[in-house]
Amino acid sequence: MGFFGTFVYTNKKKEKYYLHEYTGTGRKHMYYFSKDARDAIDLPPGWEIVENPKTGLPTLKKKEI
Q1: How does DSSP classify residue 2?
Q2: 3-class SS of residue 3
Q3: Who's near 9: CB < 8 A, 6+ residues apart?
Q4: What pLDDT does residue 2 have?
Q5: For residue range 43-61, what is the model confidence (pLDDT) as tens digits?
Q6: pTM
Q7: For the residues of 6-65, what is the DSSP string, one character each?
Q8: pLDDT at 1 (0 to 100)
Q9: Closest CA to 36 of 49, 54, 17, 55
Q10: Count of other CB atoms within 10 angstroms of residue 59
């Protein structure tokens, strides 16, 4: 965890990524990672982080029940 209410993920290359949320018109919430810390959010419940083994980029995945 990073700042209060902000989720920070550090990948295998030691790069920090911050979680953001996007809500389009009539769409569900979409989540993405960015190196910009402004307007970052906390990790939503029921989601987990998966890192791409080749690129090191993080993505969100729904937890399996």
Answers
A1: -
A2: coil
A3: 16, 17, 18, 19, 33, 49, 51, 58
A4: 47
A5: 989 999 999 999 999 999 9
A6: 0.81
A7: --EEE-TTS-EEEEEEEE-TT--EEEEEES--TT--PPPTTEEEEE-TTT--EEEEEPP-
A8: 46
A9: 17
A10: 12
